[in-house]
Design brief:
By secondary structure, the protein is an all-alpha fold. It has one domain. It is built from 5 helices and no strands. It starts with 17 loop residues before the first helix and ends in a 16-residue tail after the last helix.
């Protein structure tokens, strides 16, 4: 019997274009899970080069890895610094929920 070889999925390896990156982050934001959003930002930062993003954001590389992991809990100021360093912008849109009308 032949054994199947598997590899761990690494989203960062598939984030090749700015369009890919924006779609990936939008999907995480749509989900609304803070841990997923932090992890998505971590994937994007790794795709772009974590050391470079950390430097642009004025943060330590190791602390950024930790903050943007699935177990991390980054401060909102860290999220904003990373988003800026990635050349992205967060925008608000009206939710479809009835209670917001």
């Amino acid at each position: 019997m032949m054994k199947t070889k598997t590899k761990a999925w690494d989203a960062a390896a598939h984030l090749k274009s700015q369009t890919d990156i924006v779609a990936y982050l939008e999907a995480a934001l749509d989900d609304g899970d803070p841990a997923l959003i932090a992890a998505a930002l971590g994937d994007i930062a790794r795709a772009k080069g974590m050391a470079r993003i950390a430097r642009k954001a004025g943060l330590g590389r190791e602390s950024l890895y930790k903050a943007l992991s699935a177990e991390g809990n980054p401060e909102f100021s860290t999220v904003l610094k990373v988003v800026d360093a990635l050349g992205l912008r967060l925008r608000a849109t009206r939710a479809k929920a009835a209670w917001l009308r």
